[in-house]
């Protein structure tokens, strides 16, 4: 799914979060938020990374 699987499934240390990573993570977060049901959305709105969102759902 748009080369985002690794971004979503692996936790990346803050030191390794470069501009390219941030762009992919933002895309993954958008993908998750726009495809998840409203009830589940309430549980992930405070998350800061797509990986964090993925582990909560």
Q: In short, what is this structure?
A:
With 57 residues, this protein is mostly helical. Helices cover 63% and strands 0% of the residues. It has one domain.
Helices and strands in order:
Layout: H1 5-9, H2 19-35, H3 38-44, H4 50-56
Pfam family, one: Retrotran_gag_2
Radius of gyration: 11 Å
Shape: globular
How helical, in percent, are the residues? 55-70%
Order of helices and strands: HHHH
Number of structural units classed as domains: 1
Query: What integer is the average pLDDT?
Result: 92
Q: In terms of structural class, how would the helical and strand content be classed? A: mainly alpha
How many E strands?
A: 0
Question: Would you identify the regions where 5 or more consecutive residues have pLDDT less than 50?
Answer: none
Largest pleated sheet: none
**How much strand content do the residues show?**
under 5%
Report how far apart the termini are: 17 Å
Contiguous helical run count: 4
Pfam families: Retrotran_gag_2
């Amino acid at each position: 799914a748009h080369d985002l699987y690794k971004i979503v499934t692996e936790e990346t240390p803050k030191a390794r979060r470069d501009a390219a990573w941030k762009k992919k993570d933002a895309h993954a977060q958008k993908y998750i938020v726009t495809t998840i049901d409203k009830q589940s959305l309430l549980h992930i709105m405070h998350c800061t990374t797509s990986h964090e969102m993925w582990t909560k759902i």
